[in-house]
Amino acid sequence: MQDIKTCLNAMTVDVEDFFHVSAFDSIIKPEDWDQYQPRVDNNTRRLLDIFAKHNVKSTFFVLGWVAERYPELIKEIHRQGHEVASHGYAHRRASEQNEQEFIADVRRSKDHLQDLLGEEIIGYRAPSFSIGYTNEWAFAALKDLGFVYSSSTYPVKHDLYGTPDWPRFAYQRKEDITEIPIPTLKMWGKQVPIGGGGYFRLYPYALTRYLVKKYLEQEKQPYSFYFHPWEIDAEQPKLTNASAKSRFRHYINLKHTEGKLERLLQDFSWSTMRDVYGIST
Ligand SMILES: [Zn+2]
User: So what's the pLDDT on residue 1?
Assistant: First the structure.
């Protein structure tokens, strides 16, 4: 059997703060974001240290709102050799915007990141994997904006997102853009979400390790993993007025995530989206 350590996988981080997440958007308005205690700068710097310790390069999908407030952080991510990509500006789901609003939001974040770093930004991830059946036009918009790849679809059934019958592996779309879906595993007659985030915090590490290994052996495709800086921050302010379901999803196992992440970095081999999927401008 092939040594699993020789498979190169993509490590990705969606750079946003705890008050940006979609699960809280019914209780926190964007105009109030500046009133919350910012955590994203410190948390992302902790991640940079963890990646440096394990000699791992990652793709950071940065929210434009964060980049405007923490330009030095974004420059530091870039300086350390990671890939900077876009997560849009204001963390609005693509599926809740019309085409003009979507283009304006994404362009604002792309232009800002490019001005900051002096290089082309070629990757995009929609908030909450919100490109799907109702807004397939978004791919043509991304192509027009100059993106080369997107990682904005999740082929699972979920209450907030999901395109269960769309491709499960990286593919070239008719709009001439590469889409890299979040990984799923075919098991028990279903497509099980194994991409990271809340599931990574929920599952014991041994289960994650088993699922990733099984994916690599079964599918022979690179695996990609996503999470957020607030997921290693057990000290973040608690939002008590969120729904029980949202609180469960957001706060479960925060204090164990950093340790699990270190094991994941050790047990598999990682690099950026560009590198793993051979994407060039
Ligand atoms: Zn996000």
Answer: 47
